[in-house]
Specification:
- With about 120 residues, this protein is an all-alpha fold.
- The chain folds into two domains: about 1-40; about 55-115.
- The protein contains five helices and no strands.
- Helix 3 (about 45-50) runs parallel beside helix 5 (about 85-115).
- The radius of gyration is 17 Å and the shape is flat.
- About 15% of the residues are buried.
Length: about 120
Amino acid sequence: MIDLSVKLARTWLRAQEIFFWKFLDSAMYANFLILLGVIIAFYPTYRNVLKNPKSEPALPWFLWTFAFMFGGIVVLLEWDGKYENLAYPISMLLMHLGVGVISKIKNKVLTNKGGK
Protein backbone atom coordinates (compact mmCIF):
# COMPACT_ATOMS: atom_id res chain seq x y z
CA MET A 1 0.00 0.00 0.00
CA ILE A 2 2.76 2.45 0.92
CA ASP A 3 4.72 1.67 -2.26
CA LEU A 4 1.60 2.44 -4.31
CA SER A 5 1.19 5.78 -2.55
CA VAL A 6 4.85 6.58 -3.28
CA LYS A 7 4.28 5.81 -6.97
CA LEU A 8 1.15 7.96 -7.04
CA ALA A 9 2.97 10.84 -5.31
CA ARG A 10 5.82 10.63 -7.81
CA THR A 11 3.37 10.57 -10.73
CA TRP A 12 1.61 13.65 -9.38
CA LEU A 13 4.96 15.41 -8.94
CA ARG A 14 5.97 14.55 -12.51
CA ALA A 15 2.79 16.21 -13.81
CA GLN A 16 3.58 19.31 -11.77
CA GLU A 17 7.17 19.33 -13.05
CA ILE A 18 5.93 19.44 -16.63
CA PHE A 19 3.53 22.24 -15.72
CA PHE A 20 6.22 24.37 -14.04
CA TRP A 21 8.75 23.75 -16.78
CA LYS A 22 6.56 24.17 -19.84
CA PHE A 23 3.84 26.58 -18.82
CA LEU A 24 5.51 28.73 -16.18
CA ASP A 25 8.95 28.55 -17.81
CA SER A 26 10.61 27.73 -14.48
CA ALA A 27 13.25 25.03 -14.64
CA MET A 28 14.21 25.77 -11.03
CA TYR A 29 10.78 24.83 -9.62
CA ALA A 30 10.62 21.81 -11.92
CA ASN A 31 14.01 20.65 -10.62
CA PHE A 32 12.90 21.12 -7.00
CA LEU A 33 9.85 18.97 -7.71
CA ILE A 34 12.05 16.30 -9.30
CA LEU A 35 14.20 16.42 -6.18
CA LEU A 36 11.13 16.04 -3.99
CA GLY A 37 10.10 13.01 -6.05
CA VAL A 38 13.51 11.41 -5.56
CA ILE A 39 13.36 12.04 -1.82
CA ILE A 40 9.89 10.45 -1.66
CA ALA A 41 11.23 7.49 -3.64
CA PHE A 42 13.82 6.90 -0.91
CA TYR A 43 11.08 6.01 1.59
CA PRO A 44 10.90 2.30 0.63
CA THR A 45 14.70 2.07 0.76
CA TYR A 46 14.82 3.54 4.26
CA ARG A 47 11.96 1.31 5.39
CA ASN A 48 13.74 -1.74 3.97
CA VAL A 49 17.14 -0.97 5.49
CA LEU A 50 15.54 -0.36 8.89
CA LYS A 51 13.78 -3.76 8.76
CA ASN A 52 16.57 -5.73 7.11
CA PRO A 53 19.92 -3.89 7.18
CA LYS A 54 21.76 -6.77 5.48
CA SER A 55 19.70 -6.10 2.33
CA GLU A 56 21.62 -2.86 1.77
CA PRO A 57 25.41 -3.09 2.14
CA ALA A 58 26.80 0.20 3.42
CA LEU A 59 29.80 0.48 1.07
CA PRO A 60 27.90 1.34 -2.16
CA TRP A 61 25.88 3.97 -0.30
CA PHE A 62 29.07 5.56 1.05
CA LEU A 63 30.58 5.55 -2.44
CA TRP A 64 27.50 7.32 -3.82
CA THR A 65 27.75 9.76 -0.91
CA PHE A 66 31.30 10.64 -1.97
CA ALA A 67 30.17 11.01 -5.60
CA PHE A 68 27.53 13.54 -4.55
CA MET A 69 30.07 15.28 -2.32
CA PHE A 70 32.33 15.73 -5.34
CA GLY A 71 29.35 16.97 -7.35
CA GLY A 72 28.75 19.59 -4.67
CA ILE A 73 32.42 20.56 -4.79
CA VAL A 74 32.16 21.06 -8.56
CA VAL A 75 29.13 23.33 -8.04
CA LEU A 76 31.13 25.35 -5.50
CA LEU A 77 34.15 25.57 -7.81
CA GLU A 78 31.90 26.87 -10.60
CA TRP A 79 29.93 29.07 -8.18
CA ASP A 80 27.57 31.53 -9.83
CA GLY A 81 25.73 32.68 -6.70
CA LYS A 82 22.72 30.38 -7.18
CA TYR A 83 22.13 28.43 -3.99
CA GLU A 84 19.51 26.27 -5.71
CA ASN A 85 22.35 24.59 -7.62
CA LEU A 86 23.47 23.03 -4.34
CA ALA A 87 20.04 21.52 -3.56
CA TYR A 88 20.51 18.32 -5.57
CA PRO A 89 24.05 17.35 -4.50
CA ILE A 90 23.42 18.18 -0.83
CA SER A 91 20.06 16.39 -0.71
CA MET A 92 21.40 13.31 -2.45
CA LEU A 93 24.51 13.29 -0.27
CA LEU A 94 22.33 13.28 2.85
CA MET A 95 19.87 10.67 1.54
CA HIS A 96 22.63 8.24 0.48
CA LEU A 97 24.67 8.87 3.61
CA GLY A 98 21.59 8.13 5.73
CA VAL A 99 21.07 4.70 4.15
CA GLY A 100 24.76 3.85 4.55
CA VAL A 101 24.90 4.94 8.18
CA ILE A 102 21.72 3.07 9.11
CA SER A 103 22.97 -0.06 7.38
CA LYS A 104 26.38 0.15 9.06
CA ILE A 105 25.02 0.82 12.56
CA LYS A 106 22.21 -1.74 12.40
CA ASN A 107 24.52 -4.42 10.95
CA LYS A 108 27.02 -3.73 13.75
CA VAL A 109 24.25 -4.07 16.35
CA LEU A 110 23.09 -7.33 14.77
CA THR A 111 26.66 -8.66 14.71
CA ASN A 112 27.08 -7.83 18.40
CA LYS A 113 23.81 -9.62 19.20
CA GLY A 114 24.86 -12.79 17.42
CA GLY A 115 24.05 -12.15 13.78
CA LYS A 116 20.24 -12.44 13.73
